[in-house]
Amino acid sequence: MKLGIAIYPPKDIQDIANSFRKRYDPRYSLIAPHITIKEAFEVAEDQLPEIVQYLRQVAQDTEPIPLHIYKVSHFHPTNNVLYLAIKEEPRLTALHHKLHEPPLLKHEHKYPFVPHITIGQEMSDDELHDVYGRLRMKSFEFSFTATRFHLLYQLENETWTTYETFLLGQQG
Amino acid sequence: MKLGIAIYPPKDIQDIANSFRKRYDPRYSLIAPHITIKEAFEVAEDQLPEIVQYLRQVAQDTEPIPLHIYKVSHFHPTNNVLYLAIKEEPRLTALHHKLHEPPLLKHEHKYPFVPHITIGQEMSDDELHDVYGRLRMKSFEFSFTATRFHLLYQLENETWTTYETFLLGQQG
Question: In a designed cystine with B28, which of A57, A125, B7, B21 is the match (CB 3.0 to 4.6 A)?
């Protein structure tokens, strides 16, 4: 099965991201706006309990993480992806590392970790340029504290369902 | 904010449900296939911690629930909804009651609790009749054990995001 790990920003930020995604992201309906902390990876279903056990431990050992969205940016020319950029935060980077550390979770990164919320993808060069040109003039400043991450699995229609949420720190 | 509580069946059952939903359910892309155990209800955001606390207690006090899908059925003429019917299971009914008990969660039921997974809705009488006529000849028998439920919240675009999963029994 195909798994992924993500943080959902608060509802109001998801609503803002969706106002762009519905126009600029053809994959809009497959998942809610999110910060990917581990890209899609393939595991045998019987590895799931071990992964869950590890994620519980990681979550417990990780304090809630303050996150700050500070601008609109893009991955052009690598990828015509438009996104809300999140300030580098050592605790988020540390969490990302922990989710790639043990043998079970060692998967190749396609790209270096740049935390972001995608608001557009598969855009033409022209469209990306136009939209980015307009949005970069606006202020996108939002702060929130990530208190949990989600382990997701992908269905055949490419949508993602949450398998389990993991609360950061000793909240339980 | 608008909340709801649901159980997701295992991936293979979600995939089967989606094979019908993509044709017969215009609300297909808003949520993964699920069993609603508490219909959408409106709460003030500051009530969320108290609700979560209560749900944790309920989950801990509820053993995993064996569920059995046994046929295709429909709610016509009340509603042109086509669904996978789930055998009445006292532990599921008890969970449903607990999620409507305390003052905070006392909301009117629109309908009596008939556990089901919707696979079609907003169908015309003719379409419902045709599709049901074809599907009722087929066998739909699946068993699984519900080990968790999900607290969801609705975004402005009417999609649902998981807020937190609650594991049944002492699994944690």
Answer: B21
Query: Is A162 near chain B, with CB under 8 Å?
Result: yes
Chain A contacts of B158, Cβ < 8 Å? Answer: none
Residues 6+ apart with CB under 8 A from A32: A8, A14, A18, B155, B159, B161
Taking an 8 Å cut-off on Cβ atoms, the answer to whether A161 and B11 are in contact is yes
The residue ranges of every structural domain in chain B are 2-167
User: Predicted confidence band at B108 (pLDDT cuts at 50, 70, 90)?
Assistant: confident
Q: CATH second-level architecture of A2-167?
A: Alpha-Beta Complex (3.90)
Mutate to test the interface with B, among A15, A19, A159 (most CBs of B within 10 A): A159
Q: Is the dihedral of CA B84, B87, B91, B93 positive or negative?
A: positive
Extract the tokens encoding B32. 């993964």
The tokens describing A39, both together, are: 């890209």
Of B18, B155, B159, the CB nearest to A155: B18
* Among B32, B157, B172, beta carbon nearest to A155: B32
Average pLDDT over residues A112-120: 96
- The amino acid sitting at B1 is M
pLDDT tens readout for residues B19-37: 999 999 999 999 999 999 9
Q: Sign of the C-alpha dihedral, residues B97, B102, B104, B107?
A: positive
